[in-house]
Amino acid sequence: MSKYFLHGSLNAIEGKGGELADLLLEASRLVADAKGCSLYLISIDEKVPETVWVTEVWDTKEDHENSLKIEAVRSLISKAVPLLAGQPQRGHELSFLGGHGIS
Amino acid sequence: MSKYFLHGSLNAIEGKGGELADLLLEASRLVADAKGCSLYLISIDEKVPETVWVTEVWDTKEDHENSLKIEAVRSLISKAVPLLAGQPQRGHELSFLGGHGIS
User: Which domain holds residue A22?
Assistant: First the structure.
């Protein structure tokens, strides 16, 4: 059965890209223990440093949505919101078939 | 130091999406031993099954480019080319900062 793959970005206000990336790296440590989380990667585009990219693989979409209800994750999200420039867009949802490097 | 992250897609001709995905899954097994390859994931968009997505993390861009010179990888690429609809586009290049789930 394929897993749930999500690749999306968050835009920070001017000068806050680094701070947002740090928060999302912290989030990656939190969701490491969340049910069904296989991958939660943080990347940036050097040409657009205010945009932080999150690439995730979860056993199911439901596992992903449940992770957003975890108290510590909700608290991180509330810290991130003031750093954001505009509404976050839903990421690109794919079905993960397999590959190398993921547990 | 950040790693090299690449997220891109290949478009198959009508009815060949599955075959292309299988070839890329085979490629993921090959590059598992290539220098600097941390991640090589294959995904599809259920709504656009002819498009196969590849998400990669390498220690360096050079490691990624060197992998394309490996004989077995070149042979797989030559099998994939007849399945493609048009020229492959360069993927989205990012700097991978960190996260969960990657060795």
Answer: 3-87
Domain CATH number, residue A36 = 3.30.70.100
Closest approach of chain B CAs to the CA of A28, in angstroms?
5
Interchain proximity A100–B37, CB inside 8 Å: yes
Reported confidence tier of residue B103, pLDDT bands at 50, 70, 90? low
Q: Pick the closest to residue B40 from A13, A97, A22, A1 (CA basis).
A: A97
Residue B101 within any structural domain of the chain: no
Which two structure tokens, joined as six digits, stand for B34? 């290539």
Closest CA to B44 of B75, B77, B12: B12
The mean pLDDT of chain B is 94
In a domain, B10, yes or no: yes
pLDDT in tens, B16-65: 999 999 999 999 999 999 999 999 999 999 999 999 999 999 999 999 99
CB–CB contacts below 8 A, A to B: 117
Examine residue A99 and state whether it is found in any structural domain, yes or no. Answer: no
Tell me B12's DSSP state.
Answer: B
